[in-house]
Write a structure and sequence with these properties.
This protein is α/β, with parallel strands linked by helices. It has 12 helices and 16 strands.
Length: 437
């Protein structure tokens, strides 16, 4: 049996390797193979009875098990071809390394009654292990200088087992009972009844209830037994969407983004690969998560440039990847934004994707915006009065100033004339570091 292995090497096609007798190999497995004087990890992209290489073949050295589903493997190969990079390089950068998560907790591996019966014997022979086991039985966390060693010893005895501790944000939301507007209801129904590979654009101002549409459509997909991916362009936007998804969906929602610890990235990836994960929230790289049977891809703020991978190959746009994957696996794509990209809006105008508008805010009236003169003061009297009123009620105030340098408003207090450079008439900026303009 011959396995073709894609290696993380630029401008290289997959290599043929012999499968040793008794070794189980499937497409998508991660294997270690020799290449010259080196040993590299790669991904099996095909298996065949005969080689395409006429020379002498080297055998596979080691198998690490499944690393990617066949659907996502084909998707990454397509992305690699479109960005003119080798499939092995794309696979190596998009599939996380197989690393054990560092953060973990211990759970009972035996029935509670059996663990309770072991306490007396452990108390005589290993008091630290007895204290750690008693803490677990009471639902608490084992603490103390000897707790880590005691838990490892209990794990070796088969009394407890380690479990990876998932990464979460500290933000929490409560479940909201919201009545949908007619515009929201039509959008949710259309997405829930979408045809294979259909794309929707949800266009509405901030506060118009786009997130509620995302979550209702996601719940409909989960009810149908399909997976859900919720994407944000930046990590800073993830906590609120994730917290609302956790509160609204009757499903565990995992996080996946590039800045996660390697062990946590692999834990989430492996859970999706094994079919133990049905809902995830992440940035652009999460579009490749190997969910089983995805039914909905949601891209919030779809017009943001952060959805583009431009730093290094393979180069891709999360929107295009989501649509390509949706067409292959029969899912729907929901794009949402208050300022959609020109491409998406143009496609909606031409009828290539379906457009739904949310025309009014569901969270109340829009914020009041006023332009007030500041006169000769740095802070005008109206702004100062408004700040005083808000602060007296226990509120907070943020002042935004779009500038560089320490101070850009240098002006004469008598006549209001702006201090300018005598050579080019550009307003002077005061820099605090060297105390000069």
């Amino acid at each position: 049996m011959i396995a073709r292995v894609a290696l993380p090497i630029p401008r290289a096609k997959p290599f043929d390797y012999l499968v040793p007798e008794g070794m189980e190999i499937e497409v998508g497995f991660r294997v270690r193979v020799p290449l010259g004087k080196r040993s590299l990890w790669g991904i099996v992209v095909s298996v065949s009875p005969s080689p395409s290489y006429v020379g002498e073949l080297q055998p596979i050295q080691e198998v690490a098990g499944p690393a990617v589903s066949q659907e996502v493997l084909a998707l990454i190969q397509e992305v690699a071809a479109r960005s003119f990079v080798s499939p092995g390089l794309a696979l190596g950068r998009l599939i996380p390394p197989r690393v054990r998560p560092r953060a973990k907790r211990y759970l009972l591996a035996v029935p509670p009654l059996e663990a309770q019966a072991l306490l007396a014997e452990l108390a005589r022979k290993a008091p630290a292990q007895a204290r750690a086991l008693a803490a677990l039985l009471s639902g608490e966390e084992a603490k103390g200088s000897q707790a880590a060693g005691a838990l490892r010893a209990l794990s070796c005895k088969g009394i407890v087992r380690p479990e990876a501790l998932p990464f979460t944000f500290p933000l929490r939301e409560t479940r909201r009972e919201v009545s949908l507007t007619e515009e929201q209801r039509r959008a949710v129904e259309a997405v829930a009844e979408a045809e294979r590979g259909e794309t929707f654009l949800l266009f509405g101002p901030a506060g118009s209830g786009k997130t509620e549409v995302y979550l209702r459509a996601a719940q409909a997909a989960l009810t149908q037994g399909r997976g859900v991916l919720l994407l944000e362009p930046e990590v800073s936007l993830l906590p609120q969407l994730w917290a609302r998804a956790v509160a609204a969906l009757d499903e565990q929602v995992s996080l996946y983004f590039g800045d996660l610890p390697p062990g946590e990235r692999w834990r989430v990836w492996e859970a999706a690969l094994r079919g133990k994960l049905r809902a995830a929230c992440g940035t652009r790289s999460a579009a490749f998560l190997p969910l089983k049977g995805p039914g909905l891809f949601v891209l919030d703020e779809e017009g943001e440039p952060a959805y583009k991978q431009e730093d290094m190959a393979p180069y891709y746009h999360a929107r295009e990847v989501s649509e390509l994957r949706a067409a292959q696996e029969g899912a729907a794509v929901l794009l949402g934004s208050a300022s959609p990209s020109v491409e998406s809006y143009f496609r909606a105008e031409r009828g290539e994707i379906r457009l739904f508008r949310l025309t009014r805010r569901v969270a109340g009236h829009p914020p009041q915006v006023r332009l007030v003169p500041k006169g000769e003061e740095v802070l005008g009297p109206e702004l100062q009065a408004a700040m005083d009123r808000h602060l007296s009620r226990g509120g907070q105030v943020l002042l935004f100033l779009n500038r560089r340098g320490f101070f850009t408003g240098a002006a004469c207090r008598s006549c209001g004339a702006i201090l300018r450079c005598p050579g080019c008439a550009v307003p002077l900026v005061f820099h605090l570091a060297n105390r000069s303009f």
